[in-house]
Amino acid sequence: MSSFKMPHKFSFRTRLFLAMIIMLFVAGLLILGTTSIQYERQRENYHLGRLQRKEAQIKRHIESLVQKYNLVYESDSLWEQHESDFEKVNEIHNIQYSLFKTDGSPLLIYHSPLQVIANDYVLDPLLLNKILESKQGRYLEHYTADIDKFHASYSLLKDRFERPYAILFFPYFEDVSFSENELNTFLENLYQIYFILLAGVIFIAYFLSKFVTRSLETIRVKMGKMGLEKKNEKIYLKNATREIDSLVNSYNKMVDDLAESAEKLAKTERENAWQEMARQVAHEIKNPLTPMRLTIQSFQHTFHPDDPDSEKKLKDFSKLLIQQIDTMTEVAEAFSNFATLPKANFKSSDLVEVTQMAIHIFQHDFIVFSSNEAHIFHDIDRSQWIRVITNLVQNALHSVSKKKEPKVGVQLLSEPDQTLISITDNGSGIPDKLKNKIFEPKFTTKSAGMGLGLGIVKSIIKSHGGKISFVSTQKKGTTFTISLPKKLN
After folding, report:
1. How many CA atoms lie within 13 A of 486 on its CB side?
2. Backbone φ, ψ for residue 90 (5° rounding)
3. How far apart (Å, rounded) are the C-alpha atoms in residues 59 and 168?
4. Is 124 helix (H, G, I), strand (E, B) or coil?
């Protein structure tokens, strides 16, 4: 089952850089689009204006010929008699036009759109109706066929009583190639300017984003190094913006508050530690003092110099007092040892030899030692290592009830990268609810004792770079395992 991964988050610098580039890119597209649309509109207006001026010239010329020859409402034959004069209009103005009657039939045809030719040179009734109903007496049509693509103006020719007698058809062809080349040249120059501007803005945006986020990066690095148990450094920035300066001041105030809180916390922890230590010492000292008091009181009432057993009673009394005093001495030594462990003196030693030496202190046949190698060398403090083994073996012996014969096994297993030391007993085991407390300094399951042994053991093993763990089963026993890493050459 694959683990869920948080989506990658962009930094503020990257977002700022991309935002500037996107803004420029969008602005460039808007400029190019607006420029193209504006250019097309200007071009359209220019050609429509030119069409209108050209049409007015042709219209005046034709109306002068109509008046000259008095052709209003005359027959087609009379118009055809002066056809040469009307045809010269094309040559003079370098254009081609056509004349239709008001019913849409042809009068003089020099140029007509394909739709008109296909309709026997007769104007479509719908088109004719639009021309006649136009308020200005003029209708503009745009033909977009592949072959015929042009603007066409249909204008009514009227007599002096404003009555239409003919329709002037004037097609206007744009020089598309010229206008397109002109537009392409303009856009190409605009593209070049835009890309130069884009490259410049990318360069500026990179350094600007770096400059803007430099202060934030400094704050982020400082905050990442902040800790409760270390001395935190304040931030001092020159020429910082108001927002950054406010953020820096907040951070510096947080550093001061954290230092003050850490000092208060340390003071509180020290006070609590001393109070707890004082309570524990008082409790442990009180345990032997009570029987000592009772023994002395009893001795005062029962002792008589003339008693034949007085010497024996005095010896028993002295022995009991010495035992209680020894107990109090052990209490003091245990607390002293736990408070300050001596600095370890590491030397290359044979772990097999030192462990066997620690076991021989007990002189018990039911302690079985084994090792998979005759010699296993490690850098250890011999005295501290003996203390570890004796403490664990002693705990193993104490865990076995008096009704049961103890069996303790000490085994050394040398592996390529580490050495494992296990101490196994057949005791009552450790309850599940107590397993998390077994290495706490003041924890113990024994009625007598300080509960400091395993805490010291763990500290010693940790100073040797090792680890200690245990496995315990109720009423079957416990196995403590120490792992010491080897130095790999």
Report:
1. 13
2. -60, -40
3. 8
4. coil
d(CA 207, CA 209): 5
Tens-place pLDDT, residues 18-37 = 777 788 778 878 877 887 78
H-type alpha helices, 303-381: 310-339, 351-359
- All domains in the chain, ordered by first residue: 12-179 (3.30.450.20), 243-339 (1.10.287), 347-485 (3.30.565.10)
Residue 289 DSSP one-character state? H
How distant, in Å, are the alpha carbons of 69, 101, 482 from that of 66?
5, 14, 124
Residue 397, SS3 per DSSP = helix
Residues in the chain: 489
DSSP 437: G
What does the pLDDT look like over 327-347, one tens digit per residue?
A: 566 666 656 655 555 567 889
pLDDT digits (tens, 9 = 90+) for 248-267: 777 778 777 777 777 777 67
Q: Which two tokens mark 186?
A: 């303009």
Closest listed residue to residue 290, CA positions, set 319, 320, 329, 333: 320
> Which amino acid is residue 422, in one-letter code?
S
For residues 460 and 40, give the distance between their C-alpha atoms in angstroms, rounded to a whole number: 88
Cα–Cα distance, 373 to 351 (Å, whole number): 10
| 167 membership: H or E segment, kind and range | strand 164-172
In this prediction the pTM is: 0.38
Q: Give the chain's count of helices (H) and strands (E).
A: 11, 12
Q: CA–CA separation, 97 vs 107, rounded Å?
A: 11
Separation between Cα atoms, residue 405 and residue 415, nearest integer Å: 32
For residues 470 and 478, the answer to whether their CB atoms sit within 8 Å is: yes
